[in-house]
């Protein structure tokens, strides 16, 4: 292939990457930067290395008895389940409605038991849903609700639902308004926030050189913005043992850990001064123009694609299209066709997947969303893709789906 539009487009300027990689803010004092960021955001804010770190902090501070159950959205980052299990907890997944990407209320209500200790709901694909009804049900059981908004940041004017005890926001490498890591956690209970802060105060600060190396890596990744350069990289990566998908997953994965113990060791650090300085800069300069353009591009593509296929989150109430996924009968065939035409579509999201129910709670196995995701194709849908390229991508999908439909009708008639 001569050119290939990448699946992700980093939401950060090359200048910010150069400054971070060069160690321009290496002298930034981490304590000062964190305290300043938290003050700017609000009195209930806590800045951590990652959402995973904040989840671990929350569970440590809440200190639930071993064997307690956590109700979780059936699709999330697998590490979130690993962390819960490391605290001796049992994860009960709640299947999602593929049209809204929200947990099904009927299954959610049935998931509660006398062992339920907390609810963790994830907002997915760049959209969000109203958690009010979920929180009201949790309140009836005396259980706190935490929301994972890692994929749903829309600006520093909105820090989540007041009905959630905790709201988690990620500024990881491929997220909206990326700071190449860090997370903002809104904790709406002062005593709990103080406990979490006290626990985190015992963690060492990450070495600034680690952040500089990460910024240097993503400065190189910034070259992927060029379809010609990305095609050259993809041609080489596709011949590797893990293929192109494995290469991309390794490139953007934030925490590489072979065991839960090593994962926790990586998470239990505080971010360095330069990294928090970048977070503060990104939040201070956020204007929402790119986010609006991304949402507009996603809505246009979703509207056109509705003529030939369904999209995950088709009825999602608030969406900004951090990811855009369509459901088709032959996802591998469509991916091959799109890549041949110059578009790096993929069958799996980079980091999220469907959880498995515990052996004794198989009734909660998320069969509906797992089936939907098995037929999903994630498309490049960022606003920087030229309109003519987006139109070409639509034409490829239209031609593929119409041809498959015609073949099925011919076979049926025969």
Care to describe what's here?
The protein has 414 residues and is of the alpha/beta class. The chain has a domain at 289-413: Aspartate Aminotransferase, domain 1, CATH 3.90.1150.10. It is 45% helix and 14% strand. It is built from 16 helices and 16 strands. The protein has helices at residues 14-21, 30-41, 51-62, 78-86, 105-111, 132-140, 190-200, 208-221, 227-237, 243-252, 260-267, 273-284, 289-305, 331-340, 367-374, 387-413; strands at 45-48, 69-73, 75-76, 90-94, 96-97, 102-103, 116-122, 127-128, 145-148, 166-170, 183-187, 310-311, 318-319, 324-327, 353-354, 376-379. Helix 1 (14-21) packs antiparallel against helix 8, helix 2 runs parallel beside helix 12 and helix 3 runs parallel beside helix 4 (78-86). It is globular. The mean pLDDT is 92.
Task: Please tell me what the overall shape is.
Answer: globular
Helix run count: 16
Quickly name the level 1 CATH class of the domain at 289-413: Alpha Beta
Structural class: alpha/beta
Average pLDDT, to the nearest integer? 92
- Rg, Å, rounded: 21 Å
Quantity of strands, as a count: 16
């Amino acid at each position: 292939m001569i050119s290939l539009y990448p699946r992700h487009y980093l939401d950060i300027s090359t200048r910010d990457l150069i400054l971070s990689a060069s160690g321009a803010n290496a002298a930034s004092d981490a304590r000062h930067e964190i305290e300043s960021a938290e003050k700017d955001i609000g009195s209930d804010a806590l800045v951590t290395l990652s959402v995973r770190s904040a989840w671990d902090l929350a569970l440590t501070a809440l200190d639930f008895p071993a064997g307690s159950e956590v109700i979780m959205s059936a699709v999330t980052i697998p590490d979130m389940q690993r962390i819960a299990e490391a605290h001796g907890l049992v994860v009960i997944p709640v299947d999602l409605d593929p049209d809204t990407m929200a947990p099904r209320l009927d299954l959610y209500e049935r998931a509660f038991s006398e062992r339920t200790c907390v609810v963790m709901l994830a907002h997915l694909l760049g959209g969000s849903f109203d958690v009010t009804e979920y929180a009201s049900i949790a309140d009836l059981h005396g259980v706190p609700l935490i929301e994972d908004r890692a994929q749903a940041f829309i600006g520093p004017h909105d820090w989540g639902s007041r009905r959630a005890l905790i709201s988690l926001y990620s500024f990881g490498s491929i997220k909206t308004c990326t700071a190449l890591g860090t997370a903002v956690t809104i904790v709406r209970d002062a005593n709990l926030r103080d406990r979490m802060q006290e626990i985190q105060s015992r963690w060492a600060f990450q070495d600034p050189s680690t952040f500089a190396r990460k910024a240097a890596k993503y400065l190189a990744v910034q070259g992927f913005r060029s379809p010609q350069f990305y095609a050259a990289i993809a041609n080489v990566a596709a011949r590797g043992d893990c293929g192109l998908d494995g290469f991309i997953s390794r490139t953007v994965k934030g925490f590489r850990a072979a065991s839960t113990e090593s994962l926790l060791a990586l998470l239990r650090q505080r971010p360095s001064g330069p990294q928090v300085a970048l977070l503060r800069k990104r939040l201070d300069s956020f204007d929402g123009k790119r986010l609006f353009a991304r949402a507009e591009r996603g809505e246009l593509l979703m509207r056109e694609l509705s003529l030939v296929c369904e999209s995950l989150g088709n009825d999602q109430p608030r969406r900004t299209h951090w990811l855009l996924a369509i459901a088709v009968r032959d996802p591998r065939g469509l991916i091959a066709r799109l890549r041949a035409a110059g578009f790096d579509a993929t069958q799996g999201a980079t980091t999220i997947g469907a959880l498995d129910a515990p052996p004794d709670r198989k009734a909660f196995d998320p069969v509906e969303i797992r089936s939907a995701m098995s037929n999903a194709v994630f498309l490049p849908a960022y606003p920087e893709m030229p309109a003519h390229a987006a139109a070409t991508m639509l034409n490829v999908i239209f031609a593929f789906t119409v041809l498959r439909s015609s073949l099925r009708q011919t076979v049926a008639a025969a």
